Amino acid sequence: MLYYTISGARSDNPLLFLHAGNYSGTMWHDIAARVSNHHCIFVDLPGHGYSREIDLTSLDQAADAVARVIEQDFGGGPVNLVGLSFGGYVGLILMARHPHLIRRSMLSGIHLGAIPNAKAMNLVAGLMSPLIRLGWVRRKLAEPLGITDASIIDRTDGRANLTPRTMRAVLRLVSVFDVQDELPSIEVPTLMIAGGNEHATIIDSLRTFQAAMPACTARTVPGMGHAWCNEDPQLFAQTLQMWCDGSALSDRLNAV
Questions:
Q1: What is the tens place of the pLDDT at every residue in 179-223?
Q2: Domain-located, residue 152
Q3: pTM over cut 0.70
Q4: Which entry of 48, 67, 91, 92 is 20 to 30 Å from 79 by CA?
């Protein structure tokens, strides 16, 4: 069973957060504090945080493990789903495999197809992955995401959130992410969103998601990057709240 923590009183339609690679559920605590009227669930995905000893083998495996948490401990849902980067990829597979568990979803910073130069990227990552054991390397990797809090960069016991093996697995799984055939069957109302300064592959994928998924809305956040939840946490929380409530989205977001 995956490790998870919760905040807020139990209620209908809780928010379930899926974190980016290299981190754990703790990366979402600031956002959760801004939607304090919701019951929030923070899952540590396979190979990460206090689920570190559970080998990450596939996105299907990760999605099924999250589904078991919802089914066994949260009455079978449905929950509102939030995912960034690696958590977004897992979230999309979760909706494809277990749609009855998800009420609405907001996924940020994911793409379809092969990342340019994926083989070279995975080779470099394989060579560098042992360095993730070093604290200063983990802190350096966190800087572009705007993460400085030691309790997010590392586990509370000071150990790394992931192993070199998990780091390699994450990059391998997301570098070629081909689920285009499944998109028309995903009917969960979904907000696909990305910072306006994201890689072109992610921005271009927003159009595909919106065209292929029956209930998908796509938006960009002008001037923001991959981890815009840290750049403007208030806007992220506001967008999440509006989407889950079915309200009109902020005019600060650009339509795709």
A1: 989 999 999 999 999 999 998 999 999 999 999 999 999 999 999
A2: no
A3: yes
A4: 48
On whether the CB atoms of residues 14 and 79 are closer than 8 A, the answer is: yes
Domain coverage including residue 40: 4-113+178-255
Total structural domains within the chain: 1
Helix/strand/coil for 62: helix
Alpha carbon distance 216, 1 (integer Å) = 30
d(CA 46, CA 49) in angstroms, rounded, equals 8
Backbone angles phi, psi at 225, to 5 degrees: -110, -160
For the CA atoms of 217, 222, 225, 228, what is the dihedral angle to 10 degrees?
A: -70
Quickly list H helices, the chain. 29-34, 59-73, 86-97, 118-128, 135-142, 150-153, 164-175, 200-212, 228-231, 233-245
Pairing of strands 254-255, 216-221: antiparallel
Does residue 165 lie within any of the structural domains?
Answer: no
Q: What is the CATH number of the domain that holds 102?
A: 3.40.50.1820
Neighbouring-strand partners of residue 219: 193, 255
The reply to whether 53 falls in a domain is yes
How does residue 154 score in pLDDT terms, banded at 50, 70 and 90? very high
Q: Are 27 and 20 in contact (CB under 8 A)?
A: yes
Both tokens of 106, joined, read: 């907001």
Q: Is residue 35 part of a domain?
A: yes
Sequence letter at residue 173: L
